[in-house]
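Supplementary notes for students who missed Thursday's class. We covered one full example, reproduced here. Read the sequence, then the structure, then the short commentary at the end.
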Amino acid sequence: MSKITNAVKEMSTKKIFAAVIALVLIITVFTSTVLADVPNQYDVTVVDGSDTITISTTETEPLEVLAKAGIEVGENDKVDISAFEEGEGGSISISRLSSINIEFEGNIQSYDVYATTVGAALEEIGITIGEHDKVNYALDAKVISGMVISIKAAFSVSLTADGKTVKYAITEGKVSDLIKLAGIELGADDYTEPALDKALKAGMKVKVFRVEYKEETKTEAVKYTTKKIKDKTLNEGKTKTVTKGVNGSKNVTYKVKYVNGKAASKEKLSEVVTKQATQAVVKVGTKKVASSVKSNGVTSKNGYSVGQVIDGRYTHYCACATCNGSGSGVTSSGRRIRNGMSNPYYIACNWLPLGSVIKVNGHNYTVVDKGGSGLSRKGRIDIFTPEGHSACYRLGTGSCKIEIVRLGW
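Structure (token representation):
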């Protein structure tokens, strides 16, 4: 009984094993048939502007690859498939068209660019940014459609300070900004030209003025004074020194202002006299001296002769309207007189021809004017007094000796 049972069991096991193998073969054949009809997937790198992604796809057309990946391409965008190989992979590059605005010197201009960074966009437009020019975006910043890129071109200014002149390229600012850029420290009294609050301009020359104050003491002369004493024994115009003047000395302390090392101004603080000056004393002659008179060759005229001495009588007049008629100051000879002038030693008389010279009390007088009938009498003269009307009253009238020195001009 047991042998039969074992034989039956062995036979059943072999049948089950054969059935399993058959099933496996059927599944393998079915799977191979199905997979033979499915395309192989591959990887494609898509560079979209500044973004890069990798997608797995079974599509073979580039635009279908992008569409399946949900990437839209605009009408004016550019697609580069030169690095793409159908069914193998590679890369697809998309250049997006963006509209940007450039602001320069107050003007705004729009441009269409494919560049993805600000620097590349400016290069695409043909704008070169100098080393010191200023742009409101970093050159590696991403381009965003509609953005406004402001450009400020640098200009040159010069700065002179402490004996050196340096040129700087700058886009904007005030003189104070330039001073800060140069790393210059200004003292309390230092100043600049132009002033710190002035706006910088192309070609501007800025100068720094260093100011310092020093106290300095110097020895200076004390000028002597002169005392004048009238001396009747000396001829008029002559002088005689009685005591010689000698300068003294003093120490004077100044507050001196130096600008860039040169003295610009000073203020006196104190002074001390170290040696007194000696006053000069000078005698001044007041004695009248007859001046030399050029002869005209006429020795006698109208009953009068050169050298003749006549007893006379004098009065005084001035240039006022009371003494001189209209007060015009024009004499009969054409000579002009005025009160306050240096004494010209003129007289008026009718009995001698104009231009005649007479000596009265040791001084020569020239006849330049005529007067009323009283001056027609022999020896009668009127002496011009430039000190004015009150002096005429003070000098009064009197008798005199008159010597004829010349007759006429």
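Commentary. The two ends are 200 Å apart (CA to CA). The CA atoms of residues 85 and 248 lie 111 Å apart. If anything here is unclear, bring it to office hours.
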